[in-house]
Amino acid sequence: MDRRNFLKFAALTAAGFFLPEHVHAADDSWKLWDPPIKRPHLHFTEYETRPKTEVIVIHHTGFPEGDKDSTVEEIHKYHQEVNGWAGCGYHFLIRKDGTIEQGRKLPAVGAHALHHNMNSVGICVAGNFELAKPKHSQIESLELLTAWLCQKYKLNPMAEGVIVGHRDLNDTICPGKNLYRKLGSLRRRCRDFKFWDD
User: What is the value of pTM for the model shown?
Assistant: First the structure.
């Protein structure tokens, strides 16, 4: 399946038209394509490879001054200069317009969920979702990206502890009440992509 058809199926699924049962992990061509991810050149001071991937952790940027957009470059700079980290702690950032930007390389250990970074991927959605609601475009991109990660790592999105909010792991309100309440539907949408073997 070429990239155009991949994106066509992804768009149909995001619009509510679920993939037919025969479009399944048996079609290995699905595994050849990534979601549309912008990959800026970020310099990290160190990298450690993650030994396993069992959890996808959902975050928001949550800046207290209000609901705003952010770029992965801005977060990368903040995490290096203020937190003293190797660089952006998240693997992905989803902008207000739905653009997916890569932070850390996907195989690398992140810095986004204390005591849970060795087995998890971190996705951050730009905004403060205690104050505002995520944009529809952000939710569509989050569904596509999370479903792809479940397929890539052979995770069951409906299993307990696979797709979680940051607050499920640490003492925080992240990813904000208005995004956290959407995690149930996110899990179901990921299930309906049917990218993995039963």
Answer: 0.84
